């Protein structure tokens, strides 16, 4: 949620994918993937070099590859524990990764209504980067800067790292080997400029790309309903999730008009007024 203090609102441009009207992870429960018809005869794994990502990133990327959960679109995985962003091609091939800055507060949920509140009213313990599965939406703020919305209603986006407050040492935080100092934002994902321009910039087709923000307090199975691809296909001992607990419902709009009012859907025909969302730095 980064922007200069004077910038409070962002103007969304382009058309949001209709899939944004669907729940992010609503109603999905971890279940036996074989019973659900998700397992193919041959396993599919993400193409990641050894040591290039954490076990959690590999778990989710492999599951995406095996289930085609990304629906043929590029996808990104945000590892909050390691404060790192991974860019994948549509075929689950790892393209690159980079350190990122995240919400200063630990936690996997956004406070209800936080996207409509001025930044000065957001308490330190509310500055979280929410976990979940999100569909990316390109946008532009009032300064003319392009951003990629992750959770529009919560005003959480991916954008170039901002250095408007030198005392925050954001570039220094990105450069250190430790991820302990990468928690500084109001919730937005600050991305190194070169990485942003290469993989998220205007020349990339971001609308429809999937962003998986890994949890830091719960398991990926709980959030995504994912499973261990190798274990499910009998390639190693292990247990995939058969828990029946509820997964997170991070965003659900039963009525399309509700999503439109919140700026998550396509602008109604004939409307020329701006759609605004708080820009959290």
What does this structure look like?
With 281 residues, the chain is an alpha+beta fold. The protein is built from 6 helices and 13 strands.
Topology:
Elements: E1 9-11, H1 55-67, E2 75-79, E3 84-88, E4 94-99, E5 102-103, E6 132-135, E7 137-141, E8 146-151, E9 156-160, H2 170-175, E10 183-185, E11 189-191, H3 193-199, E12 210-213, H4 220-224, H5 229-232, H6 256-261, E13 276-278
Parallel strand pairs: 2-12, 5-10, 9-11
Antiparallel strand pairs: 1-7, 1-13, 2-3, 3-4, 6-12, 7-8, 8-9
Summarize the structure.
The chain has 281 residues and is of the alpha+beta class. Helices cover 15% and strands 19% of the residues. It is globular and about 55 Å long.
Keywords:
281 residues; alpha+beta; 6-stranded mixed beta sheet; 5-stranded mixed beta sheet; 6 helices; globular; disordered N terminus; disordered C terminus
Choose one word for the global shape. Answer: globular
Distance between the termini: 3 Å
Q: State the order of secondary-structure elements, H for helix, E for strand.
A: EHEEEEEEEEHEEHEHHHE
The number of helical elements comes to: 6
Major beta sheet, strand line-up: 11-9-8-7-1-13
Q: What does the oligomeric state look like here? A: single chain
Q: Assign a percent range to the helix content.
A: 10-25%
Strand composition percent: 15-25%
How would you sum up the major sheet? Answer: 6 strands, mixed
* Mean residue pLDDT: 75
Secondary structural class: alpha+beta
Low-confidence stretches: 3-27, 238-280
What is the gyration radius calculated from CA atoms? Answer: 18 Å
Total E-strand runs: 13
